[in-house]
Amino acid sequence: xxxxxxxxxxPKSAIHEMTRLSKEIEDVAFLSWAxxxxxxxxxxxxxxxxAIINGLVDGYSVSSGLVELRQEIVKKLKRDNNIEAxxxxxxxxxxxxxxxxxxxxxxxxxGDEVILPSPTYSTHINQVVLASGVxxxxxxxxxxGFRLDIKGIQKTITPKTKAILYCSPSxxxxxxxxxxxxxxxxxIALEHNLMVITDExxxxxxxxxxxxxxIGSIPEMQKNVVSCxxxxxxxxxTGWRIGYLIADEEIIPQINKAHIPFAICVPVVSQYxxxxxxxxxxxxxxxFRQKYLSARNLMCQRLxxxxxxxxxxxxxxSYLMFPKIFLEEGKDSQQFCEKLLREAKVSTTPGVDFGPxxxxxxxxxxxxxxxxxxTAFDRMEVYFKQLKx
Length: 389
Ligand SMILES: Cc1ncc(COP(=O)(O)O)c(C=O)c1O
Prior knowledge:
Elements: H1 5-8, H2 14-23, E1 29-30, H3 42-53, H4 67-81, E2 90-93, H5 95-107, E3 113-118, H6 122-130, E4 134-139, H7 150-156, E5 161-167, H8 179-191, E6 195-199, E7 225-230, E8 243-246, H9 252-263, H10 268-279, H11 283-304, E9 310-311, E10 320-321, E11 324-325, H12 333-344, E12 346-347, E13 349-350, E14 362-365, H13 370-387
Parallel strand pairs: 1-12, 3-4, 3-5, 5-6, 6-7
Antiparallel strand pairs: 2-8, 7-8, 9-11, 10-14, 13-14
Helix pairs in contact: 2-12, 3-10, 4-10, 5-6, 5-9, 11-13
Bound molecules: pyridoxal-5'-phosphate.
Pyridoxal-5'-phosphate binds at residues 34, 95-97, 121, 167, 171, 199, 201, 230, 232, 238, 243.
């Protein structure tokens, strides 16, 4: 075959496989996707329509994004992330994903090691492999709510280590790394001059006393961080494919050189939609957060009733959780999930997709209507009762 080894090394996505299998079955209770089920607020679509009618969207924009959009992003970064930036440090990207890909491409040479606190978002692993980098997994401390193992990270650093890549709030575990943990991580990065690449997609979705902290707000880290954000989750704009990154002026030209061959620029219509999202009321974010908090509480209550099957860490943020499966059958999470789908009509995501320490777990998404959570758990209660005889 004529394919590249680089791409052949990327495993098939279990999330997409579960989606494909789910389509073969009727009336599935679907907890597999980390995708907001609500729509974006109306004013966002209206701004896009008016940009189309006014003939603003037919050409390319500057590759790093419309100036007025980057100006609003700079204000948001200051207000919500405590990050000081000017517009030349911002690149508007095709979702957080393309920002992360461009940041990794601009940072990692073939054979360079990238530390991933794991379990971690499967796409990050694949992006490192696509850049011919070597993902190095450092397990988080599950019993302690999947906290960062700072000593473990320190011990894993070699002369080949180039970067640390994490997401907080986390997909798949829902953990929010604390300011204290991230300040310790920053010290390590500075000591070894490593790049830290962050995925802050769920920045607004944190619960109770857990607060999102951007490592890019530490002034000493300015040259060592690329912070990636998105409109996907905050404004339920998944399909608009728009996010942005912020980095030091020195590395931005390199990131732009990686961004252009993949995207040239973000669809201009989406840039006008994002501009409207930033300029208008931010109320929808709090409404989404409240909805996810209520759904999280429901999912935890339902999991408590299945305590002979699952053990879980309560998510501190995001809209995902990552229970461990007690049953013998759970050791192979792919098979477990496929069986659960076929026999109980509940679609989840196998933990093995999220790095080696993800095996034996499954990922559940609670950004779904509460009826869906109840249906899924009603079915699982019956299924596991039968399974145990
Ligand atoms: C941690 C994380 N990062 C990024 C993304 C995708 O973001 P975007 O749509 O902005 O590319 C997801 C989507 O599920 C995610 O969970």
